[in-house]
What we know:
The chain is α/β, with parallel strands linked by helices. About 45% of the residues lie in helices and about 15% in strands. It has 14 helices and ten strands. The strands form two sheets. Strands 2-1-3-4-5 form a five-stranded parallel sheet, with helices on both faces. Strand 4 (about 125-130), helix 7 and strand 5 (about 140-145) form a beta-alpha-beta unit. The radius of gyration is 20 Å and the shape is globular. The mean pLDDT is about 95.
Amino acid sequence: EKGAYPFYMMKEIDEQPAVLRRLTQEYANLDGSFSFDAELLAELQASDRIYIVACGTSYNAGWASKNALEAMMNIPVEVHLSSELGYHMPLLSSKPFFIFLTQSGETADSRQVLVKVNELGYPSLTITNVAGSTLSREAKYTVLLHAGPEIAVASTKAYTAQITVLNLLAKAYGNQNGVKAAKEFDVVHELGLTATAMEAVITEKETIESSVKSILASTRNAFYIGRGEDYYVAMEAALKLKEISYIQAEGFAAGELKHGTIALIEKGTPVFGLINDEVTGPHTRGNLKEVESRGAETFVISSESLAKVGDQLILADVHPYCRALLAVVPTQLIAYYASLHRGYDVDKPRNLAKAVTVE
Length: 359
Ligand code: M6R
């Protein structure tokens, strides 16, 4: 039930810190071990490449998890759209392992790929929020998201739950296989800090709401820019904004702007910059200067240690593997308020269904 909340989406945004804590309890044991299926970990160990297959927000969660997975598992990871893979299997490695990310577990495009994967006899894992769903039943292994029912069409807590579960799984795998990056990542501690940092962002709702009113009230388009993990979050941020506010939005790799897209910037175009990485952050700042000088209205979301005077929203510094979890939260709130103030039904955007069960 949504209780006092006007829309489920806000309730689900607010639930995210609790979801992180619940998942930590679910999969990380007090003695330092993890409760993932031993056979699953063994099959991952026997594979030479992981193929993440998903659609929409789940696809974006795959990208946001890729770097942490590769670092902690020492296995190359590819992220694919189900609707593309369904028609063209790339040249696969000799021992592929498929991970299906799907909140609903019913997405037809993803299922179509799973059917092929099963025909080919490759191992598969479905990470889903719905026990007993089609993709869960048909994959060899299932890991549940334990996010509680997600009602709003715009996915929020499933995205953060997917990244969290993949962090936990990668940590469990890396620990077992002696991967240094995994051993050094105190997943329980870092996810706890991230949950607390999410709560701090959530208490800044009103600041976000008033900025949204001023810069997104009547715009036709908007951009999110970032590099690395921030780029992956930008992809998700733009999808959310499009989906519920109908503002044409693009998530852009900041360095690519000058190769074409900057032509779209005019006076008043909103550009949100994500700056959470010490290496790429200064470069993204440079890109923000470029768009500002062409009239863009910028909004900077920066981690504390990289923040500059005038930045609109400051996030706590969290572990690099947890940055996407935190950085996505203000972008969910931005999309929510943009939809609300434009007078739309936040939970039920036009033309969309919660589970896309047709191809
Ligand atoms: O249930 P799934 O995770 O497989 O759904 C995939 C997409 O349809 C879904 O993430 C969609 O993009 C959301 N409405 C985005 O908010």
